[in-house]
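Usage

Read records sequentially. Each one opens with the input sequence:
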Amino acid sequence: MVAKSPINQAERDKLIDYLFQFITPERKNRFEKIIQYRTRFLTVVLEDIFQSHNISAVLRSCDCFGVQDVHIIENKNQFQINPDIALGASKWLTLHQHNKSENNTLSCIKALKAEGYRIISTSPHKNDINLEELDITQKTALLFGTELNGISETAAKHADGFVKIPMVGFTESFNISVSVALCLFNLTDKIRKSNVNWKISENEKSEIMLEWLRNTIQSSEAIEKKFYTTN
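and closes with the structure output:
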């Protein structure tokens, strides 16, 4: 992107208005409609998920349910997207890759807790509750581990709670991408029907809108450079 340094909201809004002329009115209306449903009250955390098709399906579900942020913990496995499954979902989301620390799980959890999130793991646990029973009055980060091993000991130790998705069949668990979709379907519906402040701020809306425009306009860097040289 051209503008690497932070810009204030007024400057950002001017840039957004300028970039709007490079997309169709229909797309502009769609952007403005969809941004109203975006939330950061819920976020998804993926710990060492190595199957690219699963990660991609998770990103698609997050976009569909309006969850803006996805945190990717990379301890052993590198984050990869399968474009045939994600269908471009990643360009609508804010992805946070945690791969710089000795213990990326711990650093991710600490960062989320500092932002006011409680960490809820979806791995089976003796102190778990059904998904429907989960209190949704506090910002929540849903942490998912691998299908084979579940979450790590570090994640389990620092989690604030555990939930399970009720099942009545012989299979012990859902596929990770299905689990994410079921959790988000349930919880996004609950928060939007509640009195909690689940919506993003006007400043966050403009930040996200700018990224959407940058990610979808061809030659956006050159166009943005022209904006800065003429304003």
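Summary fields computed downstream for this record:
- The mean pLDDT is 88.
- The chain has two domains: 8-38+204-223, 41-199.
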